[in-house]
Amino acid sequence: MAKTALVTGAAAGIGRACARRLASEGTAVGVLDIDLEGCQRVVGEIEAAGGKAIALQASIADRSQVTAAVARLREAFGPVTIVVNNAGVTDTTPFKEITDAQWDRILEINLKGTFIVTQVVLPDMEAAKWGRIINISSSSAQTGAIGMAPYSASKGGMVSLTRTLAQELGPLGVTVNNIPPGTVMNTLMSEANRGKFPMSMEALIQSIPVRHTGEPEDIANACAWLASEASSYVTGQTIGVNGGRVVS
Predict the structure, then answer these.
(1) Could you tell me if 89 and 109 are in contact, meaning their C-beta atoms sit under 8 angstroms apart?
(2) Is 243 exposed, middle or buried, given 0-12, 13-18 or 19+ CB atoms closer than 10 A?
(3) Looking at the annotation, which residues are catalytic?
(4) Are residues 9 and 88 in contact, defined by beta-carbon separation less than 8 angstroms?
(5) Considering the domain boundaries, does residue 107 fall inside one?
(6) Of 113, 118, 110, 108, which is closest to residue 177 (Cα–Cα)?
(7) Is the CB of residue 183 less than 8 Å from the CB of residue 240?
(8) Domain containing 141: what range?
(9) Looking at the 3D structure of the chain, how many domains does it have?
(10) pTM of the prediction?
(11) Domain of 103: which CATH number?
């Protein structure tokens, strides 16, 4: 039976790759982002490849916007039983210079946004007695990252939320896992090329055991497996896709 997925932050990068991969396997996809034009481009790519998708514009930190977007997705393709919580923002301000506004914005989008989106789609999963929640966290949640305190904290919160929801929602037939990417060349990591990270790209690559950065499709591969029936006995887990940057 065809399923419907919601992928947040899907206008580019990892979210785009996840949306395209899920669609390629027959899942109808809600491509959600604040960048509507980007969403429409991704929908065009999916439809050109024979898949089904709809562009949805919303800030995940705004419950009313998320509720409206999910309602549109349900109307188009039916109940939403897969969600990929990928949308997020980052910052590279040294800890002592971070303002309350910067801290609040990152936690509101990365962590509260994940909470809102998951809560909005959960009734569909509960009704179906089947669901897949996939949270895209970050390897910085596991190791920490200089100059990225609110980002690392928000992603660490996603990891803990994953573990809690896995236990709470398991009896409902819903699995909850998280993927912490390593150095993936997406729209966030591109800032490294503009000198905003404390380590050069060359040094970053040398610090990765496989000696190369990842691609958004690497994350999409893991996402597709976690969204499938093949992962039904996997929940509450951290599936690192990081080239060996984190090995425990």
Answers:
(1) yes
(2) buried
(3) 151
(4) yes
(5) yes
(6) 118
(7) no
(8) 4-183+216-231
(9) 1
(10) 0.90
(11) 3.40.50.720
